[in-house]
Amino acid sequence: MNRLLAALTLLLSPGVLLAQKGDFVLKGKIGNWNAPVKAHLVYRQAGVDVKDSAVLKDGAFEFKGTIDGPSQAMMVLKHATPSPDPRQRDMIIFYVEKGTITLTSPDSLQKVTFAGSPVNADNQRLQEALKPLGTIYGQLNAEYMAADDEKRGSVEFRQYLDQKVEELRKQEKAIYADFVKNNPKSVISLDALQQYSGGMPDDIGQIEGMFNGLDASVKKSKNGMEYEKLLTSWKSTAVGAEAPLFTQNDTLGKPVNLKDFRGKYVLVDFWASWCGPCRAENPHVVAAYNNHKDKQFTILSVSLDQPTGHDAWLKAIHKDNLTWTHVSDLKFWDNAVAKMYGVRSVPQNFLLDPQGKIVAKNLRGEELDKRLSELLK
Q1: Which listed residue, 116, 181, 238, 306, has the most CB atoms within 10 A of its CB?
Q2: What is the dihedral of CA 367, 133, 279, 246, to 10 degrees?
């Protein structure tokens, strides 16, 4: 089920910013709502979340702010009697950009139309193309939620869901690729390319070709150049490449060097104590470690815990029985090793041979133990 949830989450992943500073004005008119109905806005400015709110008067509200460039934003309309189901909340993902943006709807954010915003016009075209797939994702999620525990736990049901999600992901990628190809000057194309590539792609050459096809104004933007660095990281950590060396402190503050693990197969495992899918995957990692730790195999875990998460990190290590070496700089998504390896989602792992070459990556569940059994006969 993790792959289904990941696919649903992907639709709401962080967007792209382009370097073009300026003020924005966001004017809205949603039905005829009045207090206590309130609009809540969240966007990013200089890498920091900016939160604002406004009470509606006859359906009208207004926001003003300064941004580095077109920035993905989220607006939630909080009604007097909110829905008890968070999945049914009245919300929309859109973009704020320089200038005046007008947002109107007869009754809810679900029916919003935009004026004065070329970026949102492009984004709406892309979202309309993706809409049928979103409906199917919702149906799959409803099917999962309706299943009893026995059905959810069956191998056949999980395989069925995985197959459906895989098919939808292929259709999704085709839509993203088509948009990037036909809109090389659009801000949204860089966003679409990031969605196409996902967390750790295998078709890096194709992605690089798509990136090179973008207009120079997009490629040379701040986030365009950051994405180019990400491509470089992915190429340096492809299967067959020598794993980049790094040093990071363990739980006691002692530096640990990856090079010191040469001579063994090493699983460089990226995770975090706050990551639910990581914690769910840990029993499989523990089982593989216990089965092969006496056969020239070990694990080096890199945690993406936050600056205040040292205690939570230690507690998770002990609770999940992760009895191998752990390192972290406690910088969350700014973890230096994660950036070096191009890691944008967790859990994620890389299997290195005794010479330090990457022989496999993203091994999940029983796949890890199976691959180690093949290598450590």
Answers
A1: 306
A2: 70
